[in-house]
UniProtKB/TrEMBL annotation:
GO cellular component, one term: cytoplasm
rRNA processing as UniProt keyword: no
MF term (GO), any: GTPase activator activity
Source taxon at top rank: Eukaryota
SMART domains the UniProt entry points to: RhoGAP
Entries under InterPro entries matching the protein: Rho-GAP, Rho_GTPase_activation_prot, RhoGAP_dom
Residues of the Rho-GAP domain: 1-136
Gene encoding the protein: Arhgap15_2
Keywords: GTPase activation
Name of the protein described by the UniProt record: RHG15 protein
Organism: Oceanodroma tethys
Presence of keyword Lipid biosynthesis: no
Amino acid sequence: EERLSLADPEWSDVHVVTGALKLFFRELPEPLVPYGLFNPFIEAIKLPDPQEQVERVVELVQSLPPANYATLRYLLAHLCRVVERVDVNRMTRQNISIVFGPTLLRPEREPGSLAAGMAQQNQAVELLLAHFDRIF
């Protein structure tokens, strides 16, 4: 088993660490938001009333397996802290959603319109970040 130390110089670049994190989530056998919840999440963000969107996403997040819930909560809490430092890192909620949306929430089979699907994935992650305290 290979051991690594985050104190090693190769990990000092935030892009390397972020890339490794994204790769880890991308290579899971099933995304953090399981395939069976992909369509319900997308349908939730399509609801016309923002209040209803949040309420439905709360239900969906509560239905996650315990390990998925805990991991998603921890990761999003960290990403919320990143957003708080937008003045330093230029990572808005929207930027983070673009980076992590397709990694955390993806369909089992790629849709015909990849761009439309990615926009919805990004919107779902943006909603999770924007309403973190209510959802978790």
